[in-house]
Amino acid sequence: MVFQFGIKPEGEYFLTFVSDGAQELYELSPEDIKNNIGLIFNLVKPEQVPLFQVAIEESRRNLTEFFFEYEITTHTGHHKWLKVHSVPYVAANDTILWNGLVVDITEYKLREIQLEEAIRKADHANQAKTNFLANMSHEIRTPINAILGFTELLQDNIGAQEQRSQLELVYESGQNLLAIINDILDLSKIEADKLSLNYQGTNVRKLIINVVKIFRLQIESKKINVAINIDDCIFQKFI
């Protein structure tokens, strides 16, 4: 709908022109709206009327472009979102006139509301996942720590080298599993924006040897020859 709206120096609102689009938007005839601009405000959501008027006054005072989105309910019960855009200028006798346009943005607003609801549900699901990961990680760490503790005790009480080596492999595998669980906890911290970096040295030689040990049984079962050759120039630890 195209319109020309004005405010007289004493503050009276009036319309000099309203296009035929008023009938479709407001279900009111252009003539009725021209004769009584209050008919439009009667359709506007009550809590938005003061905001509407404040925005008009600000545009009048500063001669700035007028933008406003508002909800209406027509006399037949149709609910709509409308957007008005107009440009003011000073006319004769200090009257302020706005040439503007009103468009129906109901479909856009409905999509916006649906998107906000989808984002809210996604955030809720993501928080539930984070809580689940954190809780399950703590639950899993407790028995793993017990296994690691008993493995250390067995290592101290078994003399046979082969069995000690096997227990060492169990212990190191448990430590690796514990590290993975800690990584899961770190993931939940990242999502909660609570992760802090912890710089510490990593023994590269030991890391490589332990990786081979962990996969030793699979390597032997597939009859694969794996040789570790670490150059002496490689630092003992990296950070």
Task: Please describe the structure with a list of short key phrases separated by commas or semicolons.
single chain; 239 residues; alpha+beta; Beta-Lactamase; Helix Hairpins; 3 domains; five-stranded antiparallel sheet; two-stranded antiparallel sheet; 8 helices; 19% strand; rod-shaped
Taken as a percent bin, the fraction of beta residues is 15-25%
Helicity level: 55-70%
Return the domain count: 3
**CATH superfamily caption of the largest domain:** PAS domain
What is the architecture of the largest domain at the second tier of CATH?
2-Layer Sandwich
Could you tell me the number of beta strands? 7
SS class: alpha+beta
Describe the biggest sheet? 5 strands, antiparallel
Protein described:
There is one protein chain. The chain folds into three domains: 2-104, PAS domain (Beta-Lactamase); 106-198, Signal transduction histidine kinase, dimerisation/phosphotransfer (DHp) domain (Helix Hairpins); 199-239, no CATH class. α5 runs antiparallel to α6. The chain has 239 residues and is of the alpha+beta class. The protein has eight helices and seven strands. β1 (2-7) and β2 (13-18) form a beta hairpin.
SSE layout and pairings?
Elements: E1 2-7, E2 13-18, H1 21-26, H2 30-35, H3 38-43, H4 49-62, E3 66-73, E4 79-90, E5 96-104, H5 106-157, H6 161-191, E6 202-203, H7 204-214, H8 216-221, E7 237-238
Antiparallel strand pairs: 1-2, 1-5, 3-4, 4-5, 6-7
Helix pairs in contact: 5-6
